[in-house]
């Protein structure tokens, strides 16, 4: 698969100002995004997500490094060539950025007016776009008369007006409720399939990544700390930050009544483990095999099974009444069964009965 976007050793430093020190928002980052893929970037607030996505269309200029889109080095273009290249890169925003004095039709028409198209050409392009996003009947409405989801549909139609090859989505669903978020993401997925457009989205929510992305990069303090397929990040997260973003999203975190009693030192009771299963292992009776093989009674304290891009995966939080060598042997057994084991700490034995 050929690449659509390449960042090569891209850094972005914001200089110091009167009231703040200099910030390196992105450091020496290499990133390749394939043609036709839906690529997600996730990270906490301040990780550098907005900076990264704005570097792709050069709304931010890199302090160093190269940004290539569809084989063209954007950093080498003069202003007029850059304007032309940007028509290949649509963008949608968290707060939609519609013009309140223009109708839905005229908002979508704006980039075409700027590109110098005739009224007839504009009409022939805008109408199918409004149909694509499900707003054919709202053409004459003003933004104030629309719901948040409808406003974002206008944003999407406007971003597609110049027939871009890339669509950048800057927290595009963060201002929407969960149901509207799902419908906007479904629309973006359809657009990716129908038009073959490459989509890059940034978000702080794993649910967004889970619903439509093919691959995801996890950004932390201006660096990519993990990059993999979405299936692999959900079932085999490596970086601690990825695990914590996942726990918040999938509800596989330690229940609060257990967390309060958790100790980081063995206290002669149980050891708490988080187990992640994926693929066929999600349904296999690995816990009962552990009991049979090693005579360990396993208490299941919390568990769930989920599906990401047609792959099922499960998480269990279990307590084992062992520590030391017996614990190490149990972990080795689980790992040999392809279970990802994450030790969480130790619990007093009395809690086991309480579950
Ligand atoms: N124009 C700017 N001038 C100075 N510093 C900036 C500027 N824009 C961003 N920063 C700083 O760069 C770092 C990364 O910011 P960025 O907005 O890219 O992160 P983010 O992951 O998108 O965060 P959020 O989710 O809160 O928007 C932060 O420390 C931020 O304060």
Automatic annotation (TrEMBL):
<dbReference type="InterPro" id="IPR045865">
    <property type="entry name" value="ACT-like_dom_sf"/>
</dbReference>
<feature type="domain" description="ABC transporter">
    <location>
        <begin position="5"/>
        <end position="246"/>
    </location>
</feature>
<keyword id="KW-0029">Amino-acid transport</keyword>
<dbReference type="Pfam" id="PF00005">
    <property type="entry name" value="ABC_tran"/>
</dbReference>
<dbReference type="GO" id="GO:0005524">
    <property type="term" value="F:ATP binding"/>
</dbReference>
<dbReference type="InterPro" id="IPR041701">
    <property type="entry name" value="MetN_ABC"/>
</dbReference>
<dbReference type="InterPro" id="IPR017871">
    <property type="entry name" value="ABC_transporter-like_CS"/>
</dbReference>
<dbReference type="InterPro" id="IPR003439">
    <property type="entry name" value="ABC_transporter-like_ATP-bd"/>
</dbReference>
<dbReference type="InterPro" id="IPR003593">
    <property type="entry name" value="AAA+_ATPase"/>
</dbReference>
<keyword id="KW-0547">Nucleotide-binding</keyword>
<dbReference type="InterPro" id="IPR018449">
    <property type="entry name" value="NIL_domain"/>
</dbReference>
<keyword id="KW-0813">Transport</keyword>
<dbReference type="InterPro" id="IPR027417">
    <property type="entry name" value="P-loop_NTPase"/>
</dbReference>
<keyword id="KW-0472">Membrane</keyword>
<dbReference type="InterPro" id="IPR050086">
    <property type="entry name" value="MetN_ABC_transporter-like"/>
</dbReference>
<dbReference type="Pfam" id="PF09383">
    <property type="entry name" value="NIL"/>
</dbReference>
<keyword id="KW-1003">Cell membrane</keyword>
<protein>
    <submittedName>
        <fullName>Methionine ABC transporter ATP-binding protein</fullName>
    </submittedName>
</protein>
<keyword id="KW-1278">Translocase</keyword>
<keyword id="KW-0067">ATP-binding</keyword>
